[in-house]
Backbone:
């Protein structure tokens, strides 16, 4: 089976995408899932070096040039479609999973894009709905860091 385009608005689309893409990474790039976070993958064979974080339909990669070339080659051979690469540098920031990443002179900074501004006090008249909404926002902010 080949994924031709995203399956948005279908409940199982995220699961299907995750299963397809994570299987591809594990089998073709020889990476393993972190025991601390199932969204985090790392190479295990030394070189080439790569770390991948997958969130819903976003992927962020830290890797040496050899790993990045291998990843591109394996995507083409597997006939998987991916968004064009964007590279973080001093003049270009990256958006990832609702966050903004930017490069300072000697560090990388991550800023949450605005979900924190939406956190409110729960209305006691709609306690359950209010709790669910605010809990989801808090969980989202926690997960991106």
Residues:
């Amino acid at each position: 089976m080949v994924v031709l385009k995203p399956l948005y608005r279908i409940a199982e689309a995220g699961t299907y995408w995750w299963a397809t893409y994570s299987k591809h990474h594990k089998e073709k790039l020889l990476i393993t899932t972190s025991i601390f976070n199932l969204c985090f993958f790392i190479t295990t064979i030394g070189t080439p070096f790569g770390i991948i974080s997958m969130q819903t339909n976003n992927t962020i990669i830290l890797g040496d040039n050899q790993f990045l070339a291998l990843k591109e080659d394996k995507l083409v051979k597997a006939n998987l479609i991916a968004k064009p690469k964007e590279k973080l540098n001093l003049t270009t920031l990256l958006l990832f999973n609702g966050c903004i990443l930017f490069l300072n002179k000697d560090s990388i900074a991550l800023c949450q894009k605005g979900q924190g501004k939406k956190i409110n006090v729960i209305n006691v008249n709609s306690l359950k709905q209010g709790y669910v909404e605010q809990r989801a926002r808090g969980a989202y902010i926690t997960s991106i860091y």
Summary: The first helix runs from residue 13 to 28. The chain is about 30% helix and 20% strand.
